[in-house]
Structure formats: C-alpha cells, structure tokens
Write a structure and sequence with these properties.
It is built from 8 helices and 6 strands. It has a 6-stranded mixed β-sheet with strand order 1-3-2-4-6-5, sandwiched between helices. With 229 residues, the chain is of the alpha/beta class. The protein is 41% helix and 11% strand. A hairpin with a 2-residue loop joins β5 and β6. The radius of gyration is 18 Å and the shape is globular. It has a single domain, classed as Uracil-DNA glycosylase-like domain (Uracil-DNA Glycosylase, subunit E, 3-Layer(aba) Sandwich).
Length: 229
C-alpha cells in the first residue's frame, strides 16, 4: 500500500497488488505522491524485458533520464550497456529501473519519504518480473534490501534473501568519477556472469535428469541457498 500520509497531501492509500505492468507504468508516470512530481520532466518507470532473469536497480533518474523518461541513458548508462554485454546479454534481455522513479533536484540523494513512496512501485515490479537475480547498483539500492550494509564490503557477492538472489555492485557512475572503480565493477559483473553460467548448467542438468527419469524430483540445487564470490 502506498502511504497517504506524505507531505505533498496525497489522498488515500493505493493498492498495487492486482495491477498489471502497463497499469503500473501508467501509475508511475502519473504519480504525484511526493514533491519530486513538481520538479520532474518525466517519471521513469523502467525499461527492458518483463520476463528478465536479471534486474538492475539503480538510485534515481538523472538529467537525461528525466528528459527521455528512460533509465540509464546518459554516460553511466552507456557503461552499463557495456557491462551487460560482458555477460552475453543486451539491454533488451534485462530490466532496468531505480529505487525512485523521478529525478531528485540537482541529482541530490533521495530523501527517506521519497524512497518510502516509491518502494511499493519497485516491489510490484519485482513481483511481476520475478527475476533470477537482482543487481543493486549503488548504496541506496543496496540499502533498500540490506539496510546497514556497506557496499565497499559486500560488492561482488551474491546472496539470498526472502527467496531471491541479490548481487551488490557499485553504481556505474562511480567509474565516471573515479577510475579505480571501473575495474572493480567490471570484475563484479564477470563474477555475476560466471554465477549465471553455473546456474544455467545446473538447470540444464536437472532438465536432462527429469527427461531421462520423469520421477526425478524438481529439487532446488545447493547453490539456490547461497553463492558467494
């Protein structure tokens, strides 16, 4: 439920539990549940495959995203496209969004009530897509799922929580400001690619076992529990 007690005077809670993807995008595009709606050019719901196995979640739209209504279309987005290519995918194969759907003025950090208002939108996107792994880009995305974690300590790891896998990475924009982050991000993306390859091999092996012996239970593999790099 969206919290109606926000400082912009939003009226009444909004239930997203039965809304489909098109309806959700429309709701986000017209959202006025916080003051970011008064300064944005366009809301940025997200883009990509609605059946993606990999979902990338950044912090919030920047200038170019605000103008085009699409996530990660600036320089950081160009780097993200290159990173996605490292794991044999392209932008159309994954889903990309942010924890807040409107650009904070002057690219400031999102405020707690802005994060809270947008959280149900993000949760519903995750429910609809049901990705194999969620890649958190930057500290605000990481903190959404793992409050108190420090990205410099956990980047490059893949962990399980509430039945989902999460991979923590630095935000691609970090590489634009400090070159030392570029190789760290590249290495972390390669680890993610290795994990996806292993998972694909496990699924193929299990499918073959079931084909050969239909009585083989469709059991989760040990790596479903935890994979650390």
């Amino acid at each position: 439920m969206l919290d109606s007690a926000q400082p912009d005077g939003a009226v009444g809670p909004v239930d997203l539990s039965n809304i489909d993807f098109d309806g959700l995008d429309g709701r986000i595009s017209g959202c006025r549940l916080c003051q970011l709606a008064t300064t944005r050019t366009r809301a940025v719901p997200g883009s990509g495959s609605r059946t993606a196995e990999v979902m990338f979640i950044g912090e919030g739209p920047g200038f170019h995203e605000d103008q085009q209504g699409k996530p990660f279309v600036g320089r950081a987005g160009q780097f993200l496209d290159q990173l996605i290519g490292l794991i044999g995918l392209n932008r159309g194969d994954v889903y990309i969004t942010n924890v807040v759907k409107c650009r904070p003025p002057n690219n400031r950090d999102p405020l707690p009530h802005e994060l809270a208002v947008c959280r149900p939108y993000l949760d519903r996107q995750i429910e609809l897509i049901d990705p194999r792994v969620i890649v958190t880009l930057g500290r605000y995305s990481l903190g959404t799922f793992f409050p108190g974690d420090v990205i410099s300590r956990v980047h490059g790891t893949i962990r399980s929580k509430d039945g989902r896998h999460f991979c923590a990475m630095f935000h691609p924009a970090a590489a634009l400001h400090q070159e030392r982050y570029r190789q760290l991000i590249i290495d972390d993306m390669k680890r993610l690619g290795e994990w996806l390859d292993v998972r694909a091999q496990e699924q193929a092996k299990l499918a073959l076992e079931v084909l050969v012996d239909p009585s083989t239970p469709d059991r989760p593999h040990q790596s479903e529990q935890l994979a650390l790099f």
